[in-house]
C-alpha cells in the first residue's frame, strides 16, 4: 500500500487545495500549516500554470496573484521545503504536464520524493499519455493520481485498475468552482464501478463547498477535495485568515467524520 493510500485507512480524508504562492510565499506556508494542524489529511498544492484549462474563475484569479508574486516551480518546492521544517502533512501537487516537462521529469519527481510530495494530479495528462512521466514517478515513488470524470465512460475500469495513491472522481462537467447541485446517485454508480476493479481509495472533488455536501459525499467516497471554496477564503485576505481557515477545516472535518 502506498503512503497516500494509508492516509485513507479508517477515515474519510479531507483534502483541501491551495494555489502555491497565492498571495505570497509566507502566507502559503502558514496556510498549509494551519490546514494541516486543524484536520487536513492531505494538502493538494497547485503549481500555477499560464493556461489552466480545467480551472474556473476563482483558481484562475489565484494563479494570477501567484504569478504577480513571482511564482515558479523552484519556488513551489521551496514552499514545501519550508513546510517540511515543521510538518509531515502528506502533500500532492496539482499541476499541468508542461510544468514537470519543462523542469525535467527526472529532476521534478526526484525533488518530489526528497520533499515527501507523495502524488501528482495532472488534469491534462490522460492515462494513455502518461508513458514518460510515469517512468520517473515510479522510479521515485510518486503516485500519479488519475482523474475520472462523468465523461470517462468505458475507460473507468482501465483508469481505476492502473491507479495508485487515490482516484480523483470529478463530480461534474466543466471547470473547478463551487456548485450546489451534485449528482450523488450518479457519482455513487461511478464509485461502485471503480470498487469492482481496485481497492485504491476514491476521493471526490469539484464543486464542493458546504459541510452538508461533504457529509453526504462522505457516505460514498473515501475522501473529499475542496479547492475554490478554500481559495476564496484565502483571497478575501482578511486579517484573521488563519482563524477563518481553521474554522472551515474543522467544520468540514466534523461533517465527514459522522460517516454513516
Ligand atoms: O475548486 P473545486 O471546485 O473545489 O475543485 C477542486 C479543485 O479546485 C482542485 O482539485 C483543482 C484545482 N485545479 C484543478 C484542475 C483540475 C482538476 C482539479 C483541480
TrEMBL record:
It is an enzyme of class 4 (lyase). GO terms for cellular component: cytosol. The active site is at residues 44, 55. Coiled coil: none annotated. Keywords: Amino-acid biosynthesis, Aromatic amino acid biosynthesis, Lyase, Tryptophan biosynthesis. Gene3D superfamilies: Aldolase class I. Pathway: Amino-acid biosynthesis; L-tryptophan biosynthesis; L-tryptophan from chorismate: step 5/5. InterPro entries: Aldolase_TIM, RibuloseP-bd_barrel, Trp_synthase_alpha_AS, Trp_synthase_suA. SUPFAM superfamilies: Ribulose-phoshate binding barrel (SSF51366). Pfam families: Trp_syntA. GO terms for molecular function: tryptophan synthase activity. Its EC number is 4.2.1.20. The keyword Lyase applies. It catalyses: (1S,2R)-1-C-(indol-3-yl)glycerol 3-phosphate + L-serine = D-glyceraldehyde 3-phosphate + L-tryptophan + H2O. Belongs to the TrpA family. The alpha subunit is responsible for the aldol cleavage of indoleglycerol phosphate to indole and glyceraldehyde 3-phosphate. Tetramer of two alpha and two beta chains. This is Tryptophan synthase alpha chain. It comes from Companilactobacillus mindensis DSM 14500. The gene is trpA.
Amino acid at each position: 500500500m502506498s503512503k497516500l493510500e494509508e492516509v485513507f485507512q479508517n477515515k474519510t480524508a479531507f483534502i483541501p487545495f491551495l494555489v502555491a504562492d497565492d498571495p505570497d510565499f509566507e502566507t502559503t506556508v502558514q496556510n498549509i500549516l494551519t490546514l494541516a494542524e486543524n484536520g487536513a489529511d492531505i494538502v493538494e498544492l497547485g503549481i500555477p500554470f499560464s493556461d489552466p484549462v480545467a480551472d474556473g474563475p476563482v483558481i484562475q484569479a489565484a494563479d494570477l496573484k501567484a504569478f504577480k508574486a513571482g511564482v515558479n516551480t523552484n519556488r513551489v518546492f521551496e514552499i514545501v521545503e519550508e513546510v517540511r521544517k515543521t510538518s509531515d502533512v502528506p502533500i500532492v501537487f496539482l499541476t499541468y504536464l508542461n510544468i514537470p516537462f519543462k523542469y525535467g521529469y527526472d529532476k521534478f519527481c526526484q525533488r518530489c520524493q526528497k520533499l515527501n510530495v507523495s502524488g501528482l494530479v495532472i488534469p491534462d495528462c490522460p492515462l494513455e499519455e502518461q508513458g514518460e512521466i510515469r517512468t520517473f514517478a515510479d522510479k521515485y515513488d510518486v503516485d500519479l493520481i488519475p482523474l475520472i470524470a462523468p465523461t470517462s465512460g468505458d475507460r473507468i475500469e482501465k483508469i481505476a485498475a492502473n491507479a495508485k495513491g487515490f482516484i480523483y472522481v470529478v463530480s461534474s462537467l466543466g471547470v473547478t468552482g463551487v456548485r450546489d447541485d451534485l449528482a450523488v446517485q450518479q457519482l455513487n454508480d461511478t464509485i461502485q464501478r471503480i470498487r469492482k476493479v481496485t481497492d485504491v481509495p476514491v476521493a471526490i472533488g469539484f464543486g464542493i463547498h458546504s459541510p452538508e455536501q461533504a457529509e453526504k459525499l462522505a457516505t460514498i467516497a473515501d475522501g473529499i477535495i475542496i479547492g475554490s471554496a478554500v481559495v476564496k477564503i484565502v483571497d478575501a485576505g482578511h486579517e484573521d485568515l488563519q482563524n477563518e481557515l481553521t474554522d472551515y477545516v474543522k467544520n468540514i472535518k466534523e461533517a465527514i467524520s459522522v460517516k454513516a
